[in-house]
Amino acid sequence: MCHKHKVMLLKMWRCKHMAKITKDQVKQLADVSQIAMTDEEAEDYTEELSSIFKFASQLQELNTDDVEPTIHVLDETNVLRKDEAKTWLTQDEALKNAPEKQDGFFKVPSILE
Q: What is the tens place of the pLDDT at every residue in 1-25?
């Protein structure tokens, strides 16, 4: 989502009548997003977005002072292997089965003219 769209949605979000988004706002957002939208679709999205904003405003009324921020619902951590040096193929070993090689590199067909 580009900055222009984020700013527009944020303005709608902070509006005192957050639960009520207008059809004109939906059409304006569709316009700046370069999305073709019929009047019927705009009506549908107006109702859907109003419902979402209304629910979000209800959530904002909850007291969450004693609730720890959650990044993910599961307590997941990355499982990483130890960073240990290993022996890898030498350049000659890597090129051993190459159909074509040149100056120590794989030679492949050109894709640019």
A: 566 666 666 666 555 445 578 899 8
The range of the structural domain enclosing residue 18 comes to 3-60
pTM tops 0.85: no
Give the burial class of 20: count Cβ atoms within 10 A of its Cβ; 0-12 exposed, 13-18 middle, 19 or more buried: middle
Q: How far is CA 18 from CA 5, 77, 80, in A?
A: 17, 37, 44
104 in a structural domain:
no
CA distance 20 to 53: 8
How many domains does the chain contain in total? 1
H helices of 1-113, where? 3-14, 23-32, 39-60, 91-95
Q: How many CB atoms lie within 10 A of CB 16?
A: 6
Sign of the dihedral defined by the CA atoms of residues 96, 97, 101, 106, in that order: negative
Which residue ranges of the chain lie beneath pLDDT 50? 16-17
